[in-house]
Every structure is written in C-alpha cells, then in structure tokens.
Amino acid sequence: MSSTDRDSTPALPAGDVIARDVEHALSEDLGSGDATADLLPADAHAHAQLLCRDEAVIAGRAWFDACFHRLDPDIAIAWTVRDGERVAPDTVLCRLQGNARALVSAERTALNFLQTLSGTATRTARYVAAVAGTGTRILDTRKTLPGLRLAQKYAVRCGGGHNHRIGLYDAILIKENHIAAAGGLREAVLAARARHPQLLLEVEVENLDELEQALAAGVDRVMLDEFGPDMLDRAVARAKGKVELEVSGGVDLDSIGAIAQRGVDYISVGALTKHVHAVDLSFRVHMRDGSPLPHL
C-alpha cells in the first residue's frame, strides 16, 4: 500500500516544455520507425501494467503519459499513485490499454523519464528527511542532465526540496571569478544591482572577511562555500537574521544533518540531480485476450 507524504502535487512545467522533452526523446529512439513493433498487426490492442520494484518517491507521470499519447492519443492510462507519493517495493503504479504497437514503441522512452525523475525525487526526499525539524531547506543546483533541467527541478519539488535559480537569467550568483573581473566584491554587487535590481542577489564567500564585505554591500543571500564547523558557527552568529545563509560544497547525507543544526537557511546539493540512481521499474504488456505479447 502506498502512502503520501504531502497533500498536493507540485506544479508542472508548462505543457510545451513536456511536449518538447518527449518529442526529442522519442525521435532519438524511434528514428524512422520501430522496426520490431512493425511485426505486430497494426490494429492489435493490448494492456500493460507498470510495477515499481524499489521504495521510491514517484515523479514524472506527465512525461510518461505524453510518450504514449504522442504515439496513440487513445491509450488509456489509470494511475494508482500521484507524483510526490512514496511507494513500497512491488507497488503497481498504473495500468494501460491501447494499441499494442504504441505501447511497446513508447515503453522505453516513457520508463526512462519516470525512472530518472523518480530517482531524483527519491534522492531529494532522503536529504529532506535528514534535515527534518531544523527549518533548513534543501535546494537543487544547475548541475542537471542536459535538456532535462525543468523536469529534474520539478522532481526535486516532488521530493520535498526547493529550487535554486532555474538558470543564469532569473537570479544573480556572484562568485570568485565575477568578483575578480569586477574589481572587488562591492563593485560586483553594485554593478549587479544597477543592471538587474529586480533579481535575487547572492554572493558566494570563502571566508569571514568576504562575509563582512557581503553584509556591508547589502546582498540578499550569502553562500558559504566549504566553511568548516567552527567558521560556520561564527558566520551564523554574525549574519543570522541579517541575510539569508546558504551552505554549499562538501555536503552529503552523512554531514547534512549536523550542518542544518547550525542554523543555516538553505543547503544546496548538486547530488540531487547529477548523481541519479534510476528507480527500478517493470513494464509488462499482454494482448487483449490475456496472452503474453508475442516474442519479437
């Protein structure tokens, strides 16, 4: 029996984003057509069942559905779980009915989306659980699979995490190279404020002196990069309540709980989206009369 960990499903990316993802993925798999599925009668109908073999948090239903509906809009898909829901091993996730060729042709692409996004959501949920009760929020990064950024960031939300900036356009993050090019931290902040006053402005600092400069410059958030425990405590004591604090670098499941206990607002974790362990899914198709699909 599956159980839900939250009351609502995170908002999906725009429909054209999902359609674009699916179109690209199907085109690289199908090419000029599925030469194996063509051995089935064009009008053959079948039904299928999708099983999750792992304990997992599910994410990616819309991409899964779109793969099948791109090949046959009339395929019926009945889900037993929603995105963001945690399931036990051997949970039936959904059942499908429709054109047999479409079912077998879309299968691999649909599973690729669902196993990858569910893997992202599942990993995120583990990090979120590790900081439970601290008030610290888990953030993703831009270390996403090329072409799947919005999909993976959606999956992070399904796992209970939060999104950092989507790209280079919707927030400012000033790092060491930006500071050097601008002639100093203060100069970089002033230039950024002048050009993009509406955007969140964050500065990455590597020591307490740079933290003081960031506070004096009036930034919105400070990223504490590779701060050890003692220096982190001093940074929190100095800046808590004055500016949002984010920890980045050297964070894993073994260390994240202790970091969160020190009182930071955010911890960003690249591993949520770059270290993807796909969820184990099983997809079985049978002809409408109940017989197994012919061996192709």
From TrEMBL:
CDD domains: QPRTase (cd01572). One of its GO terms (cellular component) is cytoplasm. Its EC number is 2.4.2.19. Pathway: Cofactor biosynthesis; NAD(+) biosynthesis; nicotinate D-ribonucleotide from quinolinate: step 1/1. It comes from the Bacteria. GO terms for molecular function: nicotinate-nucleotide diphosphorylase (carboxylating) activity. It is an enzyme of class 2 (transferase). It catalyses: nicotinate beta-D-ribonucleotide + CO2 + diphosphate = quinolinate + 5-phospho-alpha-D-ribose 1-diphosphate + 2 H(+). Involved in the catabolism of quinolinic acid (QA). Belongs to the NadC/ModD family. This is Probable nicotinate-nucleotide pyrophosphorylase [carboxylating].
